[in-house]
Amino acid sequence: MRFLANQPVEVLSSLGAKKAAALRQWGVETILDLLTTYPLRYIDRTRQVDVADVSVGERDGQGAGEVVVLARVDRVEVRRGGAGGRGTSAGRGGRGGRGGRGGRTRVELDVSDGSGSLRVVFFNQPWRAGQLDVGTEALFSGKPTEFRGRRQMVNPVVDVVVDSSVGKAGGGSRTLRVIPVYPQSSTSGLSSAEIGTWVSEAIDRAGRFADPLDESWRHRLDLVERTEAIRGTHLPESMASWPPARRRLAFDELFRLQLSLVLRRRAMEADARAIRHTASVLDVTDARSRRRSPSPSLVRRFLEGLAFELTSAQRRALASIVAELAGPLPMHRLLQGDVGSGKTVVAVASMLVAVQGGHQGALMAPTEVLAEQHAMAVRTLVAGLHVPDRSRLGGERPVTVGLLTNRTTARERARLHEGLRSGDVDIVVGTHALLTDEVSFHSLGVVVIDEQHRFGVEQRAALREKGRRPVSGEGGRRRGPGADPVSPAGADPDLLVMTATPIPRTAAMVLFGDLDMVVLDELPPGRAPVTTQWARTPLEEQAAWARVRDEVAAGHRAYVVCPLVEGSERVEARSATEELVRLSREELAGVRLGLLHGQMAAAEKEAVMAAFRSGEVHVLVATTVVEVGVDVAEATVMVVEDAGRFGISQLHQLRGRVGRSSLPSWCYLLGDAVTEGAVDRLEAMERTNDGFELAEIDLELRGEGTILGARQKGRSDLKLAQLRRDADLLKAARRLAEEVIGPDGSLTDHPLLEDEVRLFLDPVDEEFLFKS
Fold first, then answer.
1. Do the beta carbons of residue 608 and residue 596 sit within 8 Å?
2. Distance of CA 702 to CAs 187, 385, 680, 694, Å?
3. Between the CA of residue 530 and those of 420, 436, 533, 630, 688, what are the distances in Å?
4. What is the rounded distance in angstroms from the CA atom of residue 534 to the CA atom of residue 698?
5. Which is more confidently placed, 167 or 43?
6. How far apart are CA 54 and CA 120, in angstroms?
7. 3 state DSSP class of 636
8. Are 134 and 78 in contact (CB under 8 A)?
9. How far apart are CA 619 and CA 586, in angstroms?
10. Judging by beta carbons within 10 Å of its beta carbon (0-12, 13-18, 19+), is residue 713 exposed, middle or buried?
11. Rounded to the nearest 5°, which phi and psi values hold at 759?
């Protein structure tokens, strides 16, 4: 494969300079890039029917009453407003504007194939007018119906075959029985047929492909040989030949990832320097019974001082974490839990295990806003706790929590740096600023990383090195009872990774395969489920604002979330500042409103939140700054403007700001769905409150490449493998990876595999795995 990665696409005789430049613009620079651009679907010409032969209720093997036609778009019309209202006609580029909130959008097409014509209708999918412009040739799959004497398809599945902006490609490939449908780029002027031509030439000229899996492995896993897999994926002879081909290439993707994860884990274990924390599982289990201890540990005092009981899931998670913190190897754990399941409490207790032994804790967040919110939460939770300090009268002082971001003033930064070096700062919350060379710790014991997918291997290694830096003096001003002395070479801090919302177990095996997983699978008792509604019509939107007014009148609070801080000419979406003004004059006139966004100063944000908590402010108009870390039990309504612009994880996080008590709560999702994916996301939010179920839906909708792309910036993003469908392949890949990596934690006995893993990793990961 390395040879293919070193061959530019310009070596293809069927590819001209202009199209080669278009491919490069699209991210396809080498023959390997081209061969790993896989078909989205296949057109089975043997099951296709002419438009003239389509009849209502016909069955052609596609499912009850469904047919497949290949047709050209002759007319496009967009209608907005009521179900039967007239709209504006659109040809090329005539997709109209945002459309406001004026009810349903209807996109109507007339399509034909030379034998006859058919009407195609899409409801609430205004983007179809831009996708299916006049002249576009596409495959339409759906159930024919009859309306006013004319045959039509409503909301069919669509595969664009020839884009109108590119022009009709040569029809030679249309003589094939099975036609691969490739991703297309209208901006780059690339059609599926052209891509298929170049792929075919590349395969023919490449000959046989080296296979890193020997015959015994392939037989055990029921996998075809690699050359057969590549040909069967791009040039299938029948519809039966591509599934086993796809299965083999999907396994290869998963296997490469699992090899890298197992290599990473072995490298970390071989070089581990653990801190044996002074902690006992009894601190967690006995705290539940409130049995008093003559000399309670810091962790036990923390748990006993909470105003609420931990859930059983929290106690199980803490017990496993505490046991590992006292063990011989550094902890590497992933903490998963739904919104509101209490991950922060578990994280704080874990850091206090380090603090009670004379070490320090660090909590790293991806944004300044999130870091600030975490700092406020941690300070509130540890208020009233003290640690030994021989330099103070009385021999103790309060647990100290610091905040370090790019917004921290120079004077406060200098004070915080000194406190971290001396050990006077027990817990620090920060962003990437924690990774700067100026930051050094007296003894870093536990690191908590929030939303780990936004941090790479390099950042994790940098935090580990901060724990390994030599510790000066006799251990600083403070040492907890029974603390381990830190060696001159330092030690590895224990690592706890938190996810903002649940990640499917299969995705976690890929994203966090080098971490042990612990799950918080229950919510605190007494919480009422949140009723969620996508307000599709003006009447439904009015009902949402009426609910806000009613809840405010009952003494409760509400959030209104907008995607932007200020208005933008390029993005047609509500901004928080403009919406505050509009709402104060219209739907929420007379209601006390507050504004919160990430560009405000920290003191200003804290003042607004304090007013909201106290009830001085009834409705908080905000950006996604309230996505996490905000807990106001009296808040019972969440209104999300332009909800189709948010992902499922964000929407679920925002919904989690309400329903934090026994009060009935509501979440209203406003605005048109601007894409097909938006429709699916909003409907999923209406169906379920279960974050783990939404995570599975999100994985299916977004695709593995998008999710994993946040962690991997190299070629290793999954293109064919689908984690929900290929869970068996993922487990088999993990087992084989653990088997083939030798006792020395290397792939030296498998040079083809090692070369391939190196090739498909980004430079940072490669350096870490093959150097550590």
1. yes
2. 22, 44, 11, 12
3. 42, 42, 10, 16, 9
4. 17
5. 43
6. 13
7. strand
8. no
9. 14
10. middle
11. -65, -40
570, with CB counted inside 10 A (0-12, 13-18, 19+), is exposed
In this predicted structure, what is the pLDDT of residue 86? 44
Per residue in 157-172, is it b (16+ CB within 10 Å) or e — as a string? ebbbbbbbebeebeee
Q: Across-strand partners of 291?
A: none
Tokens of 157: 């599945």
Bridge partner list, 262: none
653 CB-side CA count, 13 A? 20
Lowest mean pLDDT among 34-48, 270-284, 520-534, 757-771: 757-771
Spatial contact of 6 and 29, defined as CB atoms under 8 Å apart: no
Res 716: pLDDT: 45
Mean model confidence pLDDT for the chain:
83
Q: How far apart are CA 591 and CA 303, in angstroms?
A: 39
* Contact between 75 and 109 (Cβ < 8 Å): yes
- Whole-angstrom Cα distance, residue 269 to residue 558? 49
Contact 389, 434 (CB under 8 A): no
Dist. CA 399–CA 103, nearest whole Å: 56
Share above pLDDT 90 across residues of the chain, in percent, rounded to a whole number: 45
CA distance 272 to 494: 10
Closest CA to 648 of 604, 699, 593, 592: 699
Cα 613 to Cα 549, 635, 638: the distances in Å are 18, 9, 15
3-class secondary structure, 397: strand
Residue 444 has pLDDT above 90, yes or no: yes
State how far the alpha carbon of 310 is from the alpha carbons of 136, 283, 333, 382, in Å. Answer: 59, 13, 20, 16
Under 8 Å between Cβ of 144 and 54: yes
The CA-atom distances, in angstroms, between 356 and each of 217, 283, 397, 478 are: 50, 12, 13, 10
Residue carrying the six token digits 């070490």: 359
Q: Among all chains, which residue has been given the structure tokens 């490609």?
A: 169
Tens of pLDDT along 6-28?
999 999 999 999 999 999 988 89
Q: Which whole-number Å values give the CA distances from 536 to 28, 322, 665, in the listed order?
A: 40, 49, 20
User: What span, in angstroms and rounded, lies between the C-alpha atoms of 467 and 714?
Assistant: 29
Burial string for 439-457 (b: 16+ CB within 10 Å, else e) reads: bebbbbbbbbbbbbbbbbb
Q: How many residues does the chain have?
A: 772
| Residues 434, 438, 440: CA angle, nearest 5 degrees | 70
Nearest CA to 427 among 435, 437, 438, 419?
419
Query: Helices 298-305 & 343-356, crossing angle to 10 degrees?
Result: 150
Contact 68, 141 (CB under 8 A): yes
On whether the CB atoms of residues 277 and 327 are closer than 8 A, the answer is: no
Which amino acid appears at position 374 of this protein?
Answer: H
- Residue with more model confidence, 730 or 572: 730
Q: Are 1 and 11 in contact (CB under 8 A)?
A: no
pLDDT-based confidence at residue 528 (cuts at 50, 70, 90): confident
pLDDT digits (tens, 9 = 90+) for 486-499: 443 568 899 998 88
Residues 6+ apart with CB under 8 A from 585: none
Angle 443-449-342 (CA atoms, 0-180°, nearest 5)? 110
Instruction: Specify burial of residue 64 (Cβ count, 10 A radius: 0-12, 13-18, 19+).
Output: exposed
Both tokens of 3, joined, read: 């040879």
